Amino acid sequence: MVANLDRSYMSPLEYLEWEEKQDIKYEYINGEVFAMTGGTIPHNDIAFNLASGLKNHLKGSKCRVNIADAKVGISENGPFTYPDVVVSCHPKDKKALKFIQFPSLVVEVLSPSTEAYDRGGKFQLYRQIPTLQEYVLISVDKVGLDCFRLNDRGLWELHPFVEGDDVHLVSVDFTFPLSLVYEDVF
């Protein structure tokens, strides 16, 4: 969830230095910072379930899986966001300390208050990342997952999944039943 902190503008460097001293996380978009408020337990469980499955699947690979506290930089100068799950297989991200910059997969668990932004403005930001291959949105109030996948013509295609489906994330070659992400949620 996102709440606007104030209308003070910061440079990317000011933001990175300032945020390190804060008690909570803040996203940085166009010079503004936005407080990241806590999500619900089902929101957390969905993200954790998928991240756990990805971590097991990618064990021993060159990819790293991160959740909630891993910041993603659209570029070195921002914007900076905090997706629920992110996977990067890029060697430069293997030892990243402050933010992931070359993700292949970004996942957002939808909240009623952020769904429109996650589908619109945030997806517009993520599409600027040259290494991004898939953007996944997972519903928290019903069983459903939307996977936006970059095709070979450079266009983003929607692949929706509903209850009973198996999901295939091409970017990490991971196939799983959709029920995996909702384990112990519904």
Provide structural commentary.
The structure is a single chain. The protein is an alpha+beta fold and 186 residues long. The protein has one domain (39-182): tt1808, chain A (Alpha-Beta Complex), CATH 3.90.1570.10. Helix content is 20%, strand content 30%. It contains 4 helices and 13 strands. The chain has helices at 12-19, 41-58, 115-119, 121-126; strands spanning 2-4, 26-29, 32-36, 64-67, 72-73, 80-81, 85-88, 105-109, 134-138, 144-150, 156-162, 166-169, 174-177. Strands 4-7-8-9-10-11 form a 6-stranded mixed beta sheet, with helices on one face. A 3-stranded antiparallel beta sheet has the order 1-3-2, covered by helices on one side. Strands 5-6 form a two-stranded antiparallel sheet. Strand 5 (72-73) and strand 6 form a beta hairpin. Residues 1-6 have low confidence and may be disordered.
